[in-house]
Amino acid sequence: MEMGKEIRRLRNDRGLTQEALAAALNVSPQTISKWECGNSVPDVQMLPEIAVYFGVTIDQLFAMTPEQQMERIDNHIDDCGMIDRAEEWQLIQQLRALAENPKQEGQAKTLLTKLYNHQAEQYRLLAVSCGKEAVEKSGGDRDAISELANAWDSYIPDWNVRNHHALIEWFSDYCRRNPENRAAVMWLLDNLIDDHRLAEARQWLEKLEALDDTFRTVMYRYMIAQAAGEKEESEKLLCQLETMEGQEWCQAVTLGDIYTLRQEYDKAIEWYRKGQEMQPSPKFTDSAASINEWGIISGELREEVERAIQRLS
Fold first, then answer.
1. Which of 60, 171, 224, 238 meets the CB 3.0–4.6 Å disulfide criterion with 188?
2. Cα 15 from Cα 27, distance rounded (Å)
3. What distance in Å separates the CA atoms of residue 85 and residue 89, rounded to the nearest whole number?
């Protein structure tokens, strides 16, 4: 078995005998021999102890490739609620080690970011739960209400806090250095429009038009016109967006979002349904359908859907 081979390799690299390793792990030399010959494997409860002794991760004991390690971590983050601190620290160290290889650095740091975001979201859910109790128990104390609102990502009236200045400056610099990255330009446009920096948004839209010939450029022209209060122009662009042919299912979903914001719910539902029909399986649009089509039968993704069903019921 691969784990036995890896234990033997680690033992030999450190110049240890089977007897010395057995003494360190409080097992018999015969047990070590059976592991290394593939006749048996360590008890699962011993894996952390073995990993700590050799200074490696449990994944390494299984002789997983870096790609397999990162796939397992990715799936584990998706499948979990709050990851306890000991495991979180182990995952951080593992991803940092993987990131030392330039070939894996980008993917490893993406997963590290995903891990931090996952934990932050779990803490935010805890903050919301605790904040509700704080408001109730404090008799509606102003500070308690403020903390609950912050935990719930509430609208913030203070423009100095609410704007996306730091994000915009970083993405602007990145997009100047990487002008062919369509996704980055779109993220930049979203935040420029949200901050009503419309002159800059129009400049970046010109750059997007050179990269994109889909409905997205019309969508952004509509968003800018809406933000600028140009009603006649925005209506003309909305009509153009509706009548564009040969586009992907995202166009229909985008129109659903637009009509939802306009509070024209019948039209929104019509476009959402059209997007659902156009979208290839497995579908993403409806979370419950996604659970069924993706075959997810356990873990945080399913539990989140079940919580939503209970709450709505």
1. 171
2. 18
3. 6
Q: Is 174 exposed, middle or buried (0-12, 13-18, 19+ CB in 10 A)?
A: middle
**For residues 27 and 21, what is the distance between their CA atoms, to the nearest angstrom?**
8
As a whole number of angstroms, the distance between CA 15 and CA 156 comes to 61
Report d(CA 51, CA 87) in Å as an integer: 13
Alpha-carbon 215 to chain mean position: 25
Q: Report whether 29 contacts 19 (CB < 8 A).
A: yes
Residues 233-252: tens digit of each pLDDT: 999 999 999 999 877 899 99
DSSP 3-state helix, strand, coil percentages of the chain (rounded to 5)? 75, 0, 25
Q: Where are the domains of the chain?
A: 1-63, 66-154, 157-245
Angstrom distance (rounded) from CA 272 to CA 278: 10
pTM: 0.77
In Å, what is the CA distance from 219 to each residue of 67, 205, 208, 232, 265?
A: 37, 10, 12, 15, 19
Cβ atoms of 175 and 204 closer than 8 Å: yes
Using DSSP's 3-state secondary structure scheme, residue 300 falls into helix
Whose tokens are 């990162």? That residue is: 70
Catalogue the long-range contacts made by 20-25 (C-beta closer than 8 Å, 24 or more residues apart).
24/53, 25/49, 25/50, 25/53
For 254, the 3-state DSSP assignment is helix
Q: Using CA atoms, how far apart are residues 300 and 144, in angstroms rounded to an integer?
A: 29
Place of tokens 């102003």: 142
CATH of domain 1-63: 1.10.260.40
